């Protein structure tokens, strides 16, 4: 058996499939691919799966090489993005946020009397997912429940995490010894939604206190290629333009506005942080373009709600707190940015609720979901969140392909 190497593993060529199972690397309760697992599972550890980020100037380009692996992007192009990180000393805040979340989860679990260690591993920087799996195995843990640090359905926010788990199982040689299930996508779980409700109510109050009278709420999330958005979610469900990814964000935004009694306040879902060639369509409108239109519509203030983000990582610090705020000032808009969930008590408790669902096999009717789209699937469905450029690669926690 090999072990975690402290490097991003290569793409898996296969993923262990138990005899008679339909879902690779899954517990017995999930092996046949039910939409929701309503049988209790005795997990012995949690895998907190993060994106990862550099922690010094020397890390920046190697990190970006990991993120863009397989695309053939030269270092000169990567430097165009690297300056965002270099502005902050080459340090992304995302790893520190994950350390805080890992500790908060461990505290919440202990408070509830749940004896489950939380192993943290990243997709693109140390500690890597293979290192977390190797550490879990060395500690005698064999049944892991993964919590990805992403709430929505798309290739980059769901399936790619599942692919990286498969990559890690192959790289460590632990595919026949570990099983790894995944909690459902939690975009509409009350624990995820509540922090945004709190933040938006406070943001609106702040702007009104500063004299703004015609405010628009911009719910922002990471843009993705349109072709990926169209394939987000199960292949057998039609979510309209933008697929499940866009539908989930719109549904949550509507719930947040209703929850704080602001149904009559104008709002829209916007996108940010796009990359790739200009010829490739990505989800729009861009947040900066949307703000440029607001003065002509009589708006004098904007509340930015980072609905697609769990913590204040680089796309929040740079693209929102710098670029978007500069755009607002340029167009004479009073602006405030709402906090991300981070380690908000409701969010941390909600993640542990998701763990308890799987420990107890909670019936679907008893699972909270704030939109009509949920509760989402425990086991990802066939053809879910395809990346047409890469094809279907081996992935854990879902029915093939």
TrEMBL record:
GO terms for cellular component: cytoplasm. It holds the Pfam family Ferrochelatase. Fe(2+) binds at residues 222, 315. Its main location: cytoplasm. Its EC number is 4.99.1.9. Coiled coil: none annotated. The keyword Lyase applies. It is an enzyme of class 4 (lyase). Fe-coproporphyrin III binds at residues 92, 161. One of its GO terms (molecular function) is ferrochelatase activity. It catalyses: Fe-coproporphyrin III + 2 H(+) = coproporphyrin III + Fe(2+). Pathway: Porphyrin-containing compound metabolism; protoheme biosynthesis. Keywords: Cytoplasm, Heme biosynthesis, Iron, Lyase, Metal-binding, Porphyrin biosynthesis. It is found in: Cytoplasm. Involved in coproporphyrin-dependent heme b biosynthesis. Catalyzes the insertion of ferrous iron into coproporphyrin III to form Fe-coproporphyrin III. This is Coproporphyrin III ferrochelatase. It comes from Ruania alba.
């Amino acid at each position: 058996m090999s072990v975690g190497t402290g490097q991003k593993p290569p793409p898996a060529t296969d993923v262990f499939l138990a005899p008679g199972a339909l879902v690779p690397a899954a517990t017995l309760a999930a092996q046949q691919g039910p939409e929701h697992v309503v049988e209790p599972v005795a997990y012995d550890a949690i895998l907190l799966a993060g994106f990862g980020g550099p922690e010094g100037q020397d890390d920046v380009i190697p990190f970006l090489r990991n993120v863009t692996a397989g695309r053939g992007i030269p270092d000169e192009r990567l430097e165009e993005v690297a300056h965002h990180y270099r502005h902050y000393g080459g340090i992304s805040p995302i790893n520190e946020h994950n350390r805080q979340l890992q500790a908060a989860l461990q505290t919440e679990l202990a408070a509830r009397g749940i004896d489950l260690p939380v192993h943290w591993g990243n997709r693109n920087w140390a500690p890597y997912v293979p290192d977390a799996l190797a550490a879990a195995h060395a500690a005698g843990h064999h049944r892991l429940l993964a919590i990805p640090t992403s709430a929505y359905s798309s290739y980059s926010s769901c399936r790619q995490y599942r692919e990286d788990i498969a990559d890690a199982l192959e790289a460590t040689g632990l595919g026949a010894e570990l099983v790894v299930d995944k909690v459902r996508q939690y975009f509409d779980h009350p624990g995820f939604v509540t922090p945004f409700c709190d933040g938006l109510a406070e943001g609106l109050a702040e702007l009104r206190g500063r004299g703004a009278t015609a405010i628009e709420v911009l719910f922002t999330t990471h843009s993705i290629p349109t072709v990926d958005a169209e394939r987000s979610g199960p292949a057998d469900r039609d979510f309209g333009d933008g697929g499940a990814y866009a539908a989930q964000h719109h549904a949550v935004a509507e719930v947040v506005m209703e929850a704080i009694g602001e149904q009559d306040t104008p709002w829209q879902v916007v996108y940010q942080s796009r990359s790739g060639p200009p010829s490739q369509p990505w989800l729009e409108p861009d947040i900066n373009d949307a703000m440029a239109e607001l003065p002509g519509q009589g708006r004098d203030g904007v509340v930015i709600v980072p609905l697609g983000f769990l913590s204040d990582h680089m796309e929040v610090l740079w693209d929102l707190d710098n670029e978007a705020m500069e755009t607002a000032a340029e167009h004479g808009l009073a602006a405030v940015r709402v906090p991300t969930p981070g380690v908000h008590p409701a969010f941390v408790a909600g993640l542990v609720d998701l763990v308890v669902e799987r420990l107890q096999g909670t019936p679907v009717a008893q699972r909270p979901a704030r939109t009509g789209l949920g509760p989402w699937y425990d086991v990802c469905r066939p053809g879910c969140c395809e990346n047409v450029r890469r094809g279907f690669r081996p992935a854990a926690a879902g029915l093939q392909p």
